[in-house]
Amino acid sequence: MSNFKSQFLNIMVERGFYNQCTNEQGFDEYLYECEKSGKPAVGYLGSDPTGDSLHVGHIVPLMMMRWFQKCGHKPLTLVGGATARIGDPSGKDKLRPFLDEETLQHNIKGLKKSFGKFLDFGSSANSAVMVDNWDWFKDINYLAFLRDIGTYYSVNRMLTMDSVKSRLDREQPMSFLEFNYMLLQGYDFCELYKQYGCRAQIAGSDQWGNITSGTELGRRKYDVELFGFTSPIITDSNGKKMGKSEGNAVWINEEKLPAYDYYQYFRNIGDAEVGKCLRIYTDLPMDEVRRLEALKDKEINEAKKILAFEATKICRGEAEAVAAQQTAVQTFEQGNAGGDLPTIELASVEGVPVIDAFLQIGFVASKGEARRLIKQAGLKLNDKVITDENYKLSSADVIDGKIKLSQGKKKHGLIQTGAV
CB 95: neighbour CB atoms within 10 A? Predict the structure, then answer.
């Protein structure tokens, strides 16, 4: 454990959530005083409703808010009904498409469902509350906003922010509309402070510039210290950002992704990522996390099964996690899924072209058909879309002595191997 006084910050450090804080000592003191008095600290996490579900890439700050609430504090989830009409330039290379009112309302409903899987929206003192910044922006006067808020911002400093600077360095156009985004997010922070006593924003590290926009506005206009706290970008051992599965988002809401596919995303995490993912994506006690991440060789698969089950239980509920686990057992361990799966046996899979494997199991009639299906994202290896038609199988693809091959959503088969 670290030397922080507050329970929340100690948990954040131990589980690998801590990246940056605007004032570490001040934030720790604020949290500690709230924990000691029993009066919840108030913090917020924002998300623009550009889609109707969050995905695995959003879970890191969402789990931070989950722990924030577990420590007795009050989470606010802000949906940007106003800012979605502009678009956050952070990490983007072009203007975000405009959404109509009906789509925005549909997306906001979907985000509320996503948030509700991780946070408790009840009636207690630290229950989560969802707010929409459209409520305070819809009637705002542009000249009044420029006069009251714009005077606190330096264009010189705004040009040094990563979200702006990276676009300019790449000589990609950035509209004045997008340039305004950090003013709006800064205003959000201060509005939440005025309405709810919110003094903390929790987010991913890509939001640092927008967060400090709010903390600076709070200091200069309202003479209050607001705190920003960010998580690192979670990457795998190859440095690739986690949260995407071969280009396909791993959605939180069940309408967008079956529980089994969500389970399999975590079941197929690389060996080197198991400890990191157990810390971040589950509620398991750290003693259990340390025990599981110390497992080696074939035993690490047991840790992956526990990771997948616990992550799915949080997001989809225990019943769905059990069902996903049972499906995985039937498919991979018992060799059947609603009936016997077609199975081929290979003494070794090392170097076998994936196209040959699909030919041998009978899912394609020719190599040309296999290549066409790969281009259409129609073939999967261990539930991951195959993107490279020249891919060759290796020991890394073997799970519990088997490799799963799939064509579309309903045709599945197994390669069984005794050696690699």
Answer: 14
* Bridge partners of residue 129, in order along the sequence: 76
Q: Is the dihedral of CA 301, 305, 308, 310 positive or negative?
A: negative
Select from 1.10.3720.10, 3.10.290.10, 3.10.330.10, 3.40.50.300 the CATH code of 335-420: 3.10.290.10
pLDDT given at position 201: 98
What's the CATH class of domain 7-231?
Answer: alpha beta
The percent of residues in the chain predicted with pLDDT above 70, rounded, is: 92
Looking at the predicted structure, is the pLDDT value of residue 90 above 70? Answer: no
| Nearest-angstrom CA–CA distance, 51 and 70 | 28
Q: Report the alpha-carbon distance of residue 401 to residue 420 in Å, rounded.
A: 9
Average the pLDDT over 234-256 and give the result.
76
- Which pair of tokens denotes residue 354? 């994936």
Q: Residue 48 CB: number of other CB atoms within 10 A?
A: 25
87 contacts 96 by C-beta, under 8 angstroms: yes
pLDDT digits 0-9 by tens, 146-196: 999 999 988 888 888 877 887 777 777 787 877 888 899 999 999 999 999
All residues at 6 or more sequence positions from 37 whose CB lies less than 8 Å from its CB, including other chains:
none
Tell whether the model's pLDDT for residue 140 goes beyond 60: yes
Q: What are phi and psi of 239, to 5 degrees?
A: 80, 10
Q: What 3-state DSSP class applies to 20?
A: strand
Residue 243: what pLDDT?
64
Inform me whether the pLDDT recorded for 276 exceeds 90: yes
CATH of domain 258-333: 1.10.240.10
- Distance (Å, whole) CA 84 – CA 93: 16
Write out pLDDT tens, residues 17-63: 999 999 999 999 999 999 999 999 999 999 989 899 999 989 999 99
Looking at residue 235, the DSSP 8-state letter turns out to be B
Which residues, 6 or more positions from 353, have their beta carbon under 8 angstroms from its beta carbon? 390, 391, 392, 393
Strand runs (DSSP E) across 115-221, as ranges?
A: 129-132, 200-204
Indicate the burial class of 388 (C-beta count within 10 angstroms; 0-12, 13-18, 19 or more): exposed
By the 8 A CB rule, do 72 and 126 touch? yes
- If phi > 0 it is left, if psi is from -120 to 50 it is alpha, else beta; for residue 39 that is beta
The domain segmentation of the chain, as residue ranges, is 7-231, 258-333, 335-420
